[in-house]
Design goal:
One of its GO terms (molecular function) is ATP binding. The protein is α/β, with parallel strands linked by helices and about 300 residues long. The protein contains ten helices and 13 strands. The protein folds into two domains: about 220 residues, Rossmann fold (3-Layer(aba) Sandwich), CATH 3.40.50; about 60 residues, 2-Layer Sandwich (Alpha-Beta Plaits). Strand 6, helix 5 and strand 7 form a beta-alpha-beta unit. Helix 2 packs across helix 3 and helix 7 packs across helix 10.
Length: about 300
């Protein structure tokens, strides 16, 4: 596969402080790539430089074989951008919004209905954008980014503030978009979202990439313990601590939780004691990797 995006030594400063500091990575053609980080980590600024919306102070970006800055008109028909905050035209229906966006790129008329169908808004075609729900507005925003059939799609926190049902519904749409051969670059605060959707992720904090790779590889590299939980009535705390392979144990109002890096003997011992009631086994996740790298301090 060829590289669709090449970023080398990217730097952006505001008031003398580097908010993007020597960032380098590539995104392959057809890849679903995630850029993850806390608030203020530099994710959106990095995307905006790749998209040609901001000028880098140093470093280079090559997008589809061309430099996006200075603003490159040849790239505009080949990229689709869904920003963090989307503003639609007042009092236009979903179909009219898409038609307006499509006309900027000379998209064929039939493309509008195709996109409404793709994003599940065919029955809302005549509804004004301001009357759509949050999830429907996000779908319309993505449709506007796709109406001209771009090669690369940039999505900046597309599921922010959506309820769980709307989020998972949108995941199906994003998988379908990527399945059509589009390169997708995503920023998100939801680690489960990145773990499910992305082929590779880069975790960025204070403007620097801390770790990059497939989510499963990053999780395996953490070597975090497994947490095994059973009903409190099924196993006492002293018994839990004495199990083979148990590193520690604790109890809350309903559960006994055992921590172990060798869960097999713990599970076998629980089975022998008939203490599997309410069994839950939780291994490390991408969220554990994220917190290990960026810390647990709250970022406003």
């Amino acid at each position: 596969m060829t590289d669709t995006i090449e970023v080398q030594g990217l730097v952006k400063r505001y008031a003398g402080k580097a908010v993007v500091d020597d960032v380098s990575f590539t995104v392959r053609e057809g890849e679903f790539f995630g850029l993850l980080g806390p608030n203020g980590a530099g994710k959106t600024t990095t995307l905006e430089m790749i998209e040609g919306l901001r000028r880098p102070d140093a470093g280079s970006v090559v997008l589809l074989g061309e430099a996006p800055w200075p603003r490159n008109p040849r790239l505009l028909p080949r990229i689709g951008v869904q920003l963090q905050a989307t503003a639609f035209f007042d009092r236009l229906t979903a179909r009219e919004q898409l038609s307006t966006f499509g006309s900027l790129y000379d998209a064929p008329a039939g493309r509008v209905d195709e996109m409404l169908e793709l994003v599940g808004l065919a029955d809302k075609a005549g509804t004004q954008a301001e009357k759509l729900s949050g999830g429907q507005s996000q779908r319309l925003s993505i449709a506007c980014a796709l109406v001209h059939d771009p090669d690369v799609v940039f999505l900046d926190e597309p599921t922010a503030a959506l309820d769980p049902q709307a989020r998972r519904n949108l995941w199906d749409l994003l998988r379908e978009i990527n399945g059509r051969g589009k390169t997708v670059v995503l920023t998100t605060h939801y680690m489960d979202e990145a773990e499910i959707l992305c082929d590779r992720v880069a975790i960025i904090d204070e403007g620097r990439i801390l770790r990059m790779g497939p989510p499963a590889d990053l999780v395996r590299g953490l070597s975090a313990p497994t947490r095994i939980s059973v009903e409190r009535a099924a196993l006492g705390l002293d018994d839990a601590r004495s199990l083979p392979g148990a590193e520690s144990a604790e109890q809350d109002a309903t559960s006994t939780v055992i921590t172990s890096r060798t869960p097999a003997p713990v599970l076998a011992a629980l089975a022998e004691r008939d203490a599997l009631a309410g069994l839950q086994v939780r291994g490390a996740t991408l969220e554990d990797v994220f917190l290990e790298l960026t810390g647990r301090a709250y970022r406003a």
